[in-house]
Amino acid sequence: MEAGAAQVEEQKRAAAVRALDFVRPGMVIGLGTGSTARYFIDALATRVRAGLRIRAVVTSRESHHQAEAGGIELVDDLDQPLDLAVDGADEIDPRLNCIKGRGGALLREKIVAHASQRFLLIADESKLVDRLGRSPVPIEVLPFLWRMTGRSIESLGGRPTLRMAGLEPFRTDNQNLVLDSAFPRVDEQLAAMLETIPGVLEHGIFLGMARTAVIGGAGGAIRMMGALA
Ligand code: 5RP
Fold first, then answer.
1. Ligand 1: which atom is nearest the Cα of residue 100?
2. Which of 10, 91, 109, 202 is catalytic?
3. pTM listed for this prediction
4. Any atom of ligand 1 within 6 Å of the Cβ of 32
5. Relative to the CA of 204, which ligand 1 atom is closest?
């Protein structure tokens, strides 16, 4: 039976709270974007107010506002890896490959994930898939000649549509556009080909990046996937 909206929120919250087990004093932590990441930032802020000392890097303006309001010390310039990044996902496969970017923060999210020693996914169980590609892949593109960039994406078998925010094109925090594109197959080859298109700034296919996933399930169950240590 599919979980109702309130149960899904509870699963996200439970996964986010469990992710606190990976936090240690003194860490620099990457904070993701989206509804599940929001639960994590909330839970982390509560710990910080209780005396935990950590610093954080945020992946969006939205997470910046929330973390700042919660009293979390923020940094945006580092010359060494982050200890941990915690973020949600739109789809997660059994090897912890994932699709991200429905919230439009994929570029900064990928930079932060790549710069972290451990990239930890938090999600409700509806995000688990046998193989990636159930939902369109978000692709951040430069506004300059974006229709031509869209054509290049079509030449890879994609069906890109411009993401809208009401009547206006959606703009990322970096002032770029997002093309959401279904593909017949989402795999390493597609990721590599997308990276050859000059107007593509980043795509939401995160392969081999997440080391661990904390998945909230029915009745408060938590499933840990990947490496725990
Ligand atoms: C934002 C993201 C989000 O992490 C992803 O869309 C999942 O969001 P939610 O936790 O709201 O389901 O990639 O760019």
1. 13
2. 109
3. 0.96
4. yes
5. 13
**Domains (ranges, CATH) in the chain?**
3-130+207-226 (3.40.50.1360), 137-201 (3.30.70.260)
CA distance linking residue 228 with residue 147, whole number of Å: 44
Take residue 25 and report the two structure tokens written for it. Answer: 């004093």
End-to-end CA distance of the chain: 33
Per-residue b or e along 46-58, where b marks 16 or more CB atoms closer than 10 Å to that residue's CB: ebbeeebebbbbb
CA of 106 to the centre of ligand 1 (A): 9
Mean pLDDT over residues 5-20, rounded? 98
* DSSP code at position 3: P
User: Is the CB of 35 within 6 Å of ligand 1?
Assistant: yes
- 109 assigned to active site: yes
Residues 78/82/88/91 CA torsion (nearest 10 deg): 100
Q: What is the pLDDT of residues 83-142, one digit of tens each?
A: 999 999 999 999 999 999 999 999 999 999 999 999 999 999 999 999 999 999 999 999
Eight-class DSSP state of 128: B
